[in-house]
Each structure stands twice: as structure tokens, then as C-alpha cells.
Amino acid sequence: MDEFRGIRVVTTGTKYQTEQGFTAIKNGVKARDDRRATPSEPKPPWLKARIPSGERFEKLRDTVRAHRLATVCEESICPNIGECWNNGTATLMLMGAVCTRACQFCAVDTGNPRGWLDADEIENSARTVGLMNLKYVVLTSVDRDDLPDGGAAHFAAVLAAIRARTPGCAVEVLTPDFKKKPGALDVVLDARPVVFAHNVETVPRLYKTVRPGSTYEGSVGLLREAALRRDRDGVAMRVKSSIIVGLGETDDEALDVMRDLKGAGVDVVTLGQYLQPTPKHLPVARWVHPDTFAMFRREGMAMGLLHVEAGPLVRSSYHAERHRPDAVAS
User: Fold this and answer.
1) Of 117, 92, 113, 93, which Cα lies nearest the Cα of 101?
2) Beta partners for 291?
3) Fewer CB within 10 A of the terminal residue: the chain, N end or C end?
4) For helices 121-132 and 55-66, what crossing angle results, to 10°?
């Protein structure tokens, strides 16, 4: 742990003690000699994000700051925050900031929270949605393998609290894979989100490197189970997933994943460019051109997917409000 002007600073790959009393690794990865930083040459011009602006964005930003609210949108410095907030959409992270997995593309801290949950989070999340006057909210979380149900009941409780306080707000859930948590998916789906999302993130060949602790079959299987439950119950729920490109996959491999997702009953797929969060994470293997993203969208729509969001700055919650069952197809 380093110091800056007398203040302790936790550097990437360093173990530290959280306020809740358990140990975590900053940014989720340890130092490795075989990792290199993404080349220092300028990023392609198409990766330049627009400065967020707009009347609704500014009002939401003032509300968030005045009430000290927390959103993934601000904390992850999302390039699409202006567009999403102007559309009345935001994403909330549940169950803390420490993940039990160590995905090599992700800068979330890694550790074992030992069952810790914020007792006030359910009501605070509902309060945040109400104060922000959101029309659409995405609920996501870190992986919580330490919880008996992987956090499924917590997702359901937050969703119910939001509906009780702001019934006009549609709720999407973006969940972990609930590995070895039988019944967890049903708990979440019983809460009736308008969209159920789980991200496969990458192609099967790269899973052991990119998502250690997870399996491609497990992620696609979860999405298939959600789609089967939707069809069995006859509910108008969309099933959604996301792919990160630039991790070393080929275009054909990405297209194969899209076909697998369509075959599993997925309705919506998003694709975006991988950006290396720290030099200790996986390097960027390639900058994917906008024309390639346009091809992904074109091919995905031809496969029969209802929505395909594909672009360098697209993230899994981009245009989320358009993916609800009562929205116009795009």
C-alpha cells in the first residue's frame, strides 16, 4: 500500500482490508510479468466520447450529487452517461464493490465478503430511483459466490422495493451466472423483471483466460433457462447478453457466439470494444473498426435477434430502455 500526501493509497494488485473487515485485492488482479500495457499510441478517433450534456442529464447529475447517490454510470465513467440519463435510464450496482471472481478484463476488486450485505441497500436503491425520477433502471451486481443463493433474493427484494416506490419505472436485471446455486434464477424471475440479462462477455476459446471461475456453457445455459421459463410462463420478458470484442477473438468466433445466444432464446445482444482498465489486466488485442461493428449488427439482425447494439463505445446497458418488450424494435 502506497501513500500520497500522507493518505494511504491502495494500488492495483495489492491486498487490503475493507471497511467491512474482509481482505480484497485492488482491481481484482495480481501483478504478472507476462502482462503488458496496451500500446501507448493514441486510441482510434472513433473511441472519442462526447462530453455529456442536456437539461435532463444536468438535473439528474445535480440530484445525484445533492443526495450522494451512487450509480455505475458515474463510478465506471461510462462514455454513454449523457445519452442514457437524458433518456431517464441509469444502472445501479448491488451487493458491494468486492467480487468473488477475478475476470481478467474487469477492474472490480476481488475477495470473499463472507456473506456481508448492506442492510439499507434495498430501501436506498428504491430511494435513488425515486429521487432520480428514472423511467428505466438496470440492476447489476458483483459475483457473490459467498451467498447461499448468489444474491438472488437481494435482487428480487430491490426490484420489489423499486416497484413499490416508483411503479412507473421498468426494471432490468443483469445478474451473475449463479454457479452452483440451484433455484437462484427462479427467485429472480419470480420478481418479474422486464428484461433478464447475463453477459457471456467473450468466446469459448478465451474463457479460461478471460473469465477464470466461469464457463461458457454455464452462462449460455443460464440464458437458455431464463428463455425457457419466459416461454413456459407466457410472460413478455426479454432475454439479453453482451459480448466484449478486442480480447483476442476473431470475427467468426464472435458471430458463432451470437448464433449460440439466438439458439438459446436470447432476444438482445450488445457488442462493444474492450478497453484495458489497468496495465495488469489483459491487453487490448485489436481495435475493432466501426464497420465491423456494423457488420455484427447486420448479421445479428439477419439471425433473427430483435435488437443488436454494436459499436466501439457500446456497453451492456446502452439503449437499455429500448430493449423492454413494449419498446419499438431497433
Assistant:
1) 113
2) none
3) N
4) 150
**Could you read off the pLDDT of 73-105 as tens digits, one per residue?**
776 677 878 888 888 888 998 998 889 998 888
**CA–CA dist 301, 256 (Å, integer):** 14
CA 208 to chain centre: 19
Q: How far apart are the first and last CA of the chain?
A: 48
C-alpha cell at 153: 433474493
Query: Which distant-in-sequence residues (6+ apart) come within 8 Å of 199 by Cβ?
Result: 174, 219, 241, 242, 243, 316
Per-residue CA distances from 167 to 72, 129, 133 (Å) = 22, 10, 11
pLDDT digits (tens, 9 = 90+) for 24-40: 888 777 655 555 555 55
Show the cell assigned to 320: 437499455
**Residue 280 CA to chain centroid, in angstroms?**
21
Cα–Cα distance, 145 to 101 (Å, whole number): 8
The H-assigned helical ranges of 87-190 are 121-132, 152-165, 184-190
Helix or strand or coil: residue 279? coil
